[in-house]
Amino acid sequence: MPTIAYLEPLPRPTKSPKCDQTFVSRIGGPQNGTFSAPLLHNHKNHSRQCLYTFLAGPGQRVEVVFKTFNLRGNPPDGSAVGELPSCVHEYMDIYSEVQSSEPAELINSPFGGRYCGTIPPRRRISMYRAIAISFFTNKNVTTPDLFEGTYRFINASEYEIGIPIAGSPCSYTITPSLSINKTGVLISPTYPGESNQRVRLEFRDFDLFFGGPHCPFDYVKVYDGPDNSSALVGTYCGQQRNLVLYSSESSLFVHFYTLPRTANTQNRGFKGIYEFSESFVKLDFIRENDGIHIRGSECDQKILSKKESTGYVLSPNYPYPYIPKTVCRYFIYGMQDAQHLERVRLEFTAFNIPKVEHKDRSESNCTDGYLKIYLKGQETADAYDKFDYELCGNETQRVVSDGPRLAMVFSSGELQGRGFKGKYTFETEYKIPGTAAPDGSCSFTYVSASKKRGELNSPRYPSNYPSDTNCSYLFLAETNEQVTIVFDHFKIKADGNPNVTAGAYGSINCFEDWLEMYVVYRDNNDRFLGRYCGMTAPGPVESPRGAVGLRITLHTDQENVASGFKARYFFETAKSEIGDCGGNFSNEDSGIITSPNYPAGYKAPGRGMASMACNWIMTARPGYKLSIHFEHFSLEGDPANRGCSAAVLRLWVNVDSDQPPLELCGEKPPIEQWHYISTGQTARISFTTSDKTVGAQGFRIIWTEIQDSGPGPPSIGLLCESTYHFQCEVGYCISDKLRCDGVKNCGPGDDSITKAPAEDHGVLIITTLLVVSFLICLLCTLYHSRRKRRHQLRQLGLHRNPHYDSQTSATGLSSSRRHLQSGGASIAGSLHGINSGNLIIPPAPLPPTSVPPQPPHICISGSSLDLTPGAGYPGIMINDGLDDLELDDDDDDDDIQPDIFINDVRFDEESLQHVQQLENV
User: Fold this and answer.
1) Same domain, 195 and 342
2) Is the dihedral of CA 70, 76, 82, 87 positive or negative?
3) 397 backbone dihedrals φ, ψ, rounded to 5°
4) H or E segment and range at residue 892
5) DSSP assignment of 389-416, as one string?
6) 552 sits in which H/E element
7) Is the bond preceding 544 in cis, omega lying within 30 degrees of 0?
8) Burial of 103 (C-beta count, 10 Å sphere; 0-12/13-18/19+)
9) 779 lies in some domain
10) I want to staple 700 with a disulfide (CB 3.0 to 4.6 A). Which of 160, 501, 632, 861 is the partner?
C-alpha cells in the first residue's frame, strides 16, 4: 500500500471536541511530561483522528516512551515476518523523522509504523527535532487509559559525532583533529539500541538490478553484528517483498554495493525502516536447548540431529507466559544421507495456549493463539496452510514425522498463556510397513487379526539399507492358520564364496550381512530355518501346522550396504501335517518320493492360494538310519544368481536337531550324485511352490532304510549283522527283500544289489548244475514208477478213474513228501517260508568271527533264482511274480514220490509238456 495512503489526514467533523495536542520545549519551560488518550464521545460512530506533536528546541531531540497501550485491533500473525498490521477500527501511526511541525508535512515524512492491540510501540528518539503521533478511532467512547506515555527533550549533541555530511541527516566525518580523545563511540541515529535490545529492519521497498541468484552485481548484504566481519544474514538483489530482518544481538550492519553504470538504471533502489526494542523475543530459550537461531528472524530456530539424539523445544519465555503477538517457527530435522535416514518423534510434557470457544463448530477454537505442526515437509514448499495438527488449549499430542522433517509454527494472540514444552527424539526411519515397536527400534509385527496379507521390506527399500542395523519381523497367525512368505527381490551384501549347489546361505558364506528365518512355536522356542545373503533369495516358506508363525531377522555390519529385500506375506487356513500332498512313512524298507505330476512337471498353486506345500516324513526303525538319493532333480531357480524364490525343496536329515535344512533348487547335473544319510531315525522333505511358480520337471528321490553303523559314514569293511540283510558295495546293510526290485537302493553308483558278487560265480554255477541233474533224475524215477504201477493195476483188472487217480496221486505224493522230510528237512519248509515273507526273522545276532558267504543269488532281467540250501536239499523258486517252481511234501502218502508244482499247478506223468519245460530249465 502506498505510503501516502497511510499519511493522508482525514477530514475532521465540525464542532468536534478538541483532541489535538502539542508539546513544545521552551526556555525555562518543562522538559518532560506525560500524555494519554483523549476523552471522546462519538455516538454517531464518526471517524476521529487526533494528532499529538512533540517539538524540541534547537540542539534537542524528542524521546517518547509508552507506559500502557491497549488499542482495539488484531494484528495478523504475519506481522512478525514483515506484513503490515491489519488495524482497522483503531490504531496509532508514529512519525519520528518529521522535519516540520506542520501537520500537512506529515505526508512527506517517513512512516514509522502503525500499531494496535496490546503490544506498545518501542521507545522512540526523533531523527530531527519533532515526533508526531496520529491516533485514529471510530469507537463510541474513548477513555484516557487507552494509552499513556511520557516524553522528554534530550540533548542532541551525543548523536552528532563529527562533521555532518551535506545531504545526509545522519552521516558524519570523524577526524582526529575534531576529537579530544583518540577514541570515541559510534551510535546509530535515534539510539538507544541497548544491549538488551534487538534491531528490526524492514525494507518497505526493494528494487535492485538482478544479475543472478547469487547477486554478482548490485546487492545489499546484511550482517548480524556491528561490521562486515560479523555473520552474514543474507545477500539480496532484484525485487524483494516483505523483507524483514532481526538482529541476534543489539546491532545490524547493512552494506549496499552497486557497479558503475554509463546509463541510468531503471531500478528504484531500496527504502527501509529500523527499530530498536527490548520487547522482541529473547533468544535464551533457543540457545539453552541445543537450538540454532535462524539469523535474520525474530525467533525462528532449527534443530539438527546428532544421530538418535533427544532434546526439548520450548515456547518463548517458557516457563513464564509468552509475549503476545509473536510468531516463531521451529524446524526439527533428522539425518538424511547415504547411510542414515531419521524421523522425528515429538511428545509434549506441558501445553497451555488459551482456547476460544465458538458457537459455530466449524470454526477453529485456536483463533487467538495456536501451534501448528507439519509432518510431511510442507514448509519446503511454503505450504503453511496445509498443516497436520493445530493445537491449543491444554491438549497434548504425540506425533511422528513421515520423513526426516518436522516443522512447527507458534503464534501467540492477545491472550497470554504459559506456552509449551515438548521432547523431541530423532529415531531411525526404516520405511517398513508394519506395526513398529514403541521404543523406535527396527522391530515390526504383523498380526493376522489386523491384516491377512501385505508386504515387508528391508529398511529404506528400494534405497540401500543402513549399516550397523538389526531388524526383526514377527508374523503371528491365529489358531488353525499358517503364514506364507514369498520373496520378490533379494540382494544382501556377501563377501563369501557361495556354494552353487546349496545356495549362498549358512554362517560360512554369510558372515557380514545376512537374513535369517525362524519358525516360532507356542512355547516361545524358535526353529532355525536358514541364513541367506548375496543374491540367493530364500525359497517360499510356509509355517508348519501347530506353529505360531515365522520370524525374520536382518543383520548389517558397519561396512558397505546393498539394496536389501522385498517380500509378501499371506495368512491362510492351516493345512494338514503333510500339506497339499506328501506322506508319512514308517516301518518300511524303502520308498520313492516324486514331485506332483512327475515327470510331466509340477504346476503353480491353485487360484487364490499363496503356496502349495508337500511334506514327506520318513521314520526308520530303531537301529536304522535313512539313505536319501536324489536320482533326478529339476526345479526352477538358480542358487548362485537369484536363489529359490519361486520353488524350493528343503531336506532335514534330522528333524529333532536344531540344524537348518538343506535348501535346493536349480538343475542337478547328471554327473553329480546327490546322496545324504540321516543323522537320526527321522528325515523330512518339504517341497514348496509360490504363486509365481512357472514349473519344471520336478524330482525323483529314493530313500532306503539302512542298518545304523554308529556315528559317521558306514565302513566298507563292515559286515552286516544278520544273514537276512544285503550288504552293498559301499558298506550299507539293507533289507534282503530289496533285491532285484529295479531300484538302486544302495545309492548312486552302486549296482551290487542287482547282480551276484563276482566271487560267488563258480559256486553258483556248480550248485545250479547239481540241482538240474537231481531234478532230471527225480523226474525219470517218478515217470518209471508211475508206469510200473499202472501196469500192475491193469493186471488186476482195475479201470482208470480220474477221481481215483487224483486222490491216489495226492496221497502218494503226500507220503513221499513225509519221506523226504524224514531225511532231514522239507524243501518247501525252508525255501517257501523265506521267500513268501511269512517267516519271522529273528533278531540279528552279534557279528560272528567269520560270517559264511551269502546264498548264491542270480538276477535275470529283473527276476531272481534263489538257491538256498536246506537240510541237504536244494530249493528252486522262480520269483519274478509269475512263475514259482516248488518242491513240497503234502504229508499224504509215504509210498508215492514227490510231486512237482509250478505256480501251484501239479504235474503228473501225463503232463509231459510241463515236465519238458522243467527239464529245459
Assistant:
1) no
2) negative
3) -150, 145
4) none
5) EEE-BT---EEE-SSSEEEEEEE--SS-
6) strand 549-556
7) no
8) middle
9) no
10) 632
| CA–CA gap between residue 458 and residue 322 (Å, rounded) | 45
Other C-beta atoms lying within 10 Å of the C-beta of residue 435: 13
Q: Are residues 589 and 557 in the same domain?
A: no
Distance CA(590)–CA(745), nearest Å, equals: 8
- Cβ atoms of 649 and 661 within 8 Å: the answer is no
Q: Which grid coordinates belong to 313? A: 523445544
- Where is the domain boundary, 98, 130, 155? 155
Q: Could you tell me the end-to-end alpha-carbon distance of the chain, in angstroms, rounded to an integer?
A: 127
Cα–Cα distance between 159 and 161 in angstroms, integer?
Answer: 6
Pairing of strands 327-333, 301-304: parallel
Count of all residues that appear for the chain in the document: 921
| String of DSSP letters for 96-122 | EEE--S-GGGGGGSPP--EE-BTPPPP
pTM of the model: 0.57
Written as nine digits, the cell of 637 is 531357480
Helices (H) then strands (E): counts for the chain: 6, 56
Q: What is the pLDDT of residues 350-379, one digit of tens each?
A: 999 998 887 677 777 888 899 999 999 999
8 A C-beta contact, residue 684 and residue 615: yes
Q: Which residues does 216 contact at the CB level (< 8 Å), separation at least 6?
A: none
Is residue 456 located within the same domain as residue 567? yes
How far, in Å, CA of 402 to CA of 406, rounded?
8
Per the domain annotation, does 134 fall within a domain?
A: yes
Which tens digit of pLDDT belongs to each residue from 539-571?
999 999 889 999 999 999 988 889 999 999 999
Q: Give the residue numbers spanning the domain of 627.
A: 583-687+694-709+724-738
DSSP class of residue 5? H
